UniProtKB/TrEMBL annotation, chains A, B:
SMART domains: HTH_ICLR. One of its GO terms (molecular function) is DNA binding. Residues 62-245 form the IclR-ED domain. Keywords: Activator, DNA-binding, Glycerol metabolism, Transcription, Transcription regulation. It comes from Streptomyces naganishii JCM 4654. This is Glycerol operon regulatory protein. GO terms for biological process: glycerol metabolic process; negative regulation of DNA-templated transcription. May be an activator protein for the gylABX operon. It holds the Pfam family HTH_IclR. SUPFAM superfamilies: GAF domain-like, Winged helix' DNA-binding domain. Residues 2-61 form the HTH iclR-type domain.
Length: 252, 252
DNA sequence: CAGCTACGTTGCGTGTACTGCAACACTCAT
DNA sequence: ATGAGTGTTGCAGTACACGCAACGTAGCTG
């Protein structure tokens, strides 16, 4: 690995915490000011950092544009989106699409026609991985070894009394999810929110993404939400079929 | 600036166009494969690129998280948001918030309660800078020299017959906008869409952001939309006041 | 206003760490 | 099997990134 690049890239998460001046950056990197300056200049030239009027540095605009383009290029999202909106039309609840990447699960799409939700507050943000229904599906499909490794490394925050408490409980839950081919989150993240989720598979049967429908208790009970399961699974299967290049699938 | 970092960062926009394999990256950088490999590995370690199952590289998840955090740290957005939603409540149209940064104008917030718009398709995306009302306001406030320099460098795509045709036309338009303290886009980007916009100023009077209300012709005529101008300007002024720390924030 | 400190910036010699080469390992087609 | 196409590794030479020290410029303080 390249030392110089490594140092330069370490600046980004540092600036993500908030603006910093040259001295602070140099200190936290453990390098001389002149070195930090050169790195910052290079980052600046690529638009990844921006120098605000008080001369301090913060993350730059190009970052948005890149994240943007990266998102647009995810073909799963492209394919899934119309199906997600259609599902949303017919049930009215929030629909999420998520993928797994290197120990993290992220939402890559969301449809919610009812409320003016600030979408970017979730898209791209790591999911509550130990409780979210989509996370369970994505992790359940990992190879045994990796699954256990990831499960061991995670924190298990007790969002609610129903949150997954620890790694063993999580692993047995994943096993169950794996068997049944779908997952739920019943008040595990927020007391009053329930979700049902189904996997989207590639041509080789591996899970490439997962989608879920979420609704608060006050609108529909958990049991009522579960009646949507067949519809969710059918939608996921349709997307799977289209993603694999097969003709729209009628299986359920 | 640093050559190594420069090369590494050049990989990012390259991958933004779509996934690429090692050879392609090396070619487009004009370096040896082993060099490209080392750079990619470093980027990978920082989560900025991801290696998909077919071994090709694409942009990684950390990018979203970073863009995310950068966004959250923009205090203008924080302050403006409740005012934007309130404006949206009272008029029902789409409301945008945008800032200028290094030759680009970007939307950093958007409220649209009516339709299930895919918000992220605009947030963070560079604005049609030659025609958008918010862009005119932001550019109009630049120092003479910079304004001209930017105007000269721009492309002037003819989105519609009413699009700004060239740099001189743009500069006179900016002059007008500067004088009157507000701006419009009447079908300059999309034939049937009109916008009115107002500037948000910092304590020193400089324009730090701009906000706009947009609506299609079929809903309200351009004249009708213009009747909203006082409301838009009042909202912008309120935000300006709060941003400058003048008016202490009152409980909502 | 002089003197101070704190900060960003510049030029330069030294030596590190980045580069490109060449050889290797591997997967697919033919 | 054999070949062409990948990605990967170790190594020697040298470009280039590093830290130093000196300078420029603010912003305080007496």
């Amino acid at each position: 690995m390249s030392q110089t690049v490594d140092r330069a890239l370490s600046i980004l998460p540092l600036l993500a915490e908030g603006p910093a001046d040259l001295g602070q950056v140099a200190d936290r990197l453990g390098v001389h000011k002149s070195t930090a300056l050169r790195l910052l200049r290079t980052l600046h030239e690529h638009g990844l950092v921006y120098r605000q009027s008080d001369q301090r540095y913060r993350l730059g605009a190009r970052l948005f544009a890149l994240a943007q383009e990266a998102m647009e290029n995810l073909d799963i999202r492209e394919i899934a989106h119309p199906h997600l909106t259609r599902l949303n039309d017919s049930c009215g609840h929030t629909v999420h699409l998520a993928v797994y990447e290197e120990g993290e699960v992220l939402y890559i799409d969301k449809v919610d026609s009812r409320y003016p939700v600030r979408m970017y507050s979730r898209i791209g943000k790591p999911v509550a991985i130990t409780v979210a229904a989509v996370a369970k599906l994505l992790l359940a499909d990992l190879p045994e070894a990796e699954r256990r490794a990831v499960a061991e490394k995670l924190d298990y925050p007790a969002y609610t009394p129903r949150s997954t408490p620890n790694a063993p409980a999580f692993l047995t839950e994943l096993e169950k999810v794996r068997e049944q081919g779908w997952a739920t989150d019943l008040g595990g993240h927020e007391e009053s929110i329930n979700c049902v989720a189904a996997p989207i598979r590639g041509a080789d049967g591996r899970v490439v993404a997962a989608m879920s429908v979420s609704a608060p208790n006050v609108v529909v009970s958990a049991d009522e939400l579960l009646t949507l399961l067949p519809l969710v699974r059918r939608t996921a299967d349709t997307i799977s079929g289209e993603y694999s290049g097969r003709n729209p699938v009628t299986a359920q």
